[in-house]
Amino acid sequence: MPWEKVLSVNQSQCQAQKTEHQPKPNSFEAARQLWEKSVPKAMSLGEVLEICRQCQDLAPFVFNNGNTFAAISKTLIEEWARFLPAVEAQIFRTTVSHYVAGQVGKKELLDVLRHVEMRWKNVAMPAAEEQRLDESIKQNT
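Given the sequence above, the corresponding structure tokens read:
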């Protein structure tokens, strides 16, 4: 996901809350560089979520840093979440977004990631669907 999409998500979050989208001069460039340096890398889901959290921690915007990066993290996992039972998918989404926003620790995140990984291994996914999911994940990371 390019940095321009991050900006767009923040603008939407700000517009919804009737606040002004405004980069923070001190941290915006550092977050942008971290994000853009990470985009071309092949990373695990945990590593991707860590980049989201680090960018959120840098607080590159005046408003909605947590909401922006939490929304991005939920978008990144949505394809995976749809292969889970509804309650587990909601727990997955919530844990991921709360981790990125700094409200859940790494241990809790890893516990949930291990759980959903086991669920995915037990799901018999048609080969075409598995390939589509893999392609979607590569595009979103």
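Residues 3-140 form one domain. Try to locate this feature in the token string yourself.
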